[in-house]
Amino acid sequence: MAFGKIVETLQRLRRELPQLYRWLSPGIGVKRWLLLTLLGTTLIGVGLGIVILHIYRTAPETWWLPLLSAASLRFLSRPIRAIIFILLGLGMVLGGIFGINRALMGPFLRPGKKVVDEITIHRRRERGIKIVAIGGGHGLATLLRGLKEYTYNLTAVVTVADSGGSSGKLRKEMGILPPGDLRNCLAALSNDEALLTHLFQYRFPDGQSGLNGHSLGNLLITALAEITGSFEEAVAESGRVLAVRGQVLPSTLQQVDLVADVHLPLMPAGVRIEGESEIPRSSWRVRRVYLQPNSPPAYPEAIKAILNADMIVIGPGSLYTSILPNLLVPEITEAIRSSKALKVYVCNIAAQPGETDHYSCEDHVRAIEEHVGKGLFEVVLANLPPKDHLDEKIEWVRVEDSRKSNYRTVKEKLYDEAQFTRHDSELLAKSLISIYQQGHPRIMS
């Protein structure tokens, strides 16, 4: 029975030994503290050794001195004794550290996860590249949900031109910036999209007096803005509640409205439409969009993040109502041009009815260039549609021949198998990291 337990213990030690080695792998910040622990343990051992040696030399001959002599292995040579005691002490220290970590981290670990794995992932993401994502809507949230698996150094710069739904009501009634897109990004960057995040995203059903169609997260941000006296501080506090990794920033703190000039048949002058939520409903080709008031000041923290970024990602999202409202803030565009980061534009997968009907990828790029000028990005990441997909309801955004363009086009499979018109967050993030890695292989290794 005892022999069987010894064999079982040895087998378990053999299985867990590789995991112990992983604690010494570079980058997880453990070796320095392990070395400090070993040094402290060594000094304690030296002190105890001096005390025991003093007792052994000065104590009168008693019955326990032979036992002490045997326990100190004096019948072996000094080098062998030193090796035995060092190995025993090292094993005890490592076992103690391993046990303490399991005891302390156990309540915070997800089932099936190991402490060393979680620490390794955390350290890798802490040192991840600095990415700024610019846009709004569900597209930006999808992007952030994928990128947070690679880095914690994420900044979302979000449009505040929303005028519809819960955000529009709060903007009109409370006079605050529309919180909807910022709320979606906060939820996407949450460390654990569990019950609290779902609660933050909960929308009250229609028909309830006073709460009709409102999102709980929008109401929370509005309440925090009243309490703190600052909209940006309300967004930051919401991020702390959700344990957000990264930050979500408005492109401007000024109340702005989005206005569009659309083309109508038999009307050369076109028609002007006011309000972000009204533009897609027109169903006519958009000629140009602009902000009122014109040239609003950018939020300084957004400028700072853009200038310090390693990679800037523009999109995905609604071209005229999510992406361009950010780029129409002049200081945002100037900061993008001034930044030394790699700049990538992520084109939409499918045309958006009322905004980009029959648009190719080049049409999307051309629209951006007509509004803010050329040379804003170096790479265009476009979706590669499935060859055998015959759903006539989906109008895929096709990529035309762009050999004469000033940017490099990368075509990858990016669509979500469950919902073809939307990006898959994992595929999108993987493609973007791969694009960055091609130019900076050492940084991402």
Please describe what this structure looks like.
The protein is of the alpha/beta class. 48% of the residues lie in helices and 13% in strands. The strands form two sheets. It has a seven-stranded parallel sheet with strand order 3-2-1-7-8-9-10, with helices on both faces. Strands 5-4-6 form a three-stranded antiparallel sheet, with helices on one face. The protein is elongated.
Tag the structure with descriptive keywords.
16 helices; 445 residues; three-stranded antiparallel β-sheet; seven-stranded parallel β-sheet; single chain; Rossmann fold
Summarize the structure.
With 445 residues, this protein is of the alpha/beta class.
Shape by Cα distribution = elongated
Specify the number of helices: 16
Strand order of the largest sheet: 3-2-1-7-8-9-10
**CATH top level of the largest domain?**
Alpha Beta
State the end-to-end CA separation. Answer: 49 Å
**How large is the share of residues in beta strands?**
5-15%
SSE blueprint:
Layout lengths: L1 H21 L8 H28 L5 H8 L6 H28 L9 H12 L4 E5 L1 H11 L6 E5 L6 H10 L5 H10 L5 H7 L14 H13 L2 H11 L5 E4 L6 E8 L2 E8 L11 E7 L7 H8 L3 E4 L4 H9 L2 H9 L3 E5 L14 H12 L6 E5 L24 E5 L12 H15 L6
Parallel strand pairs: 1-2, 1-7, 2-3, 7-8, 8-9, 9-10
Antiparallel strand pairs: 4-5, 4-6
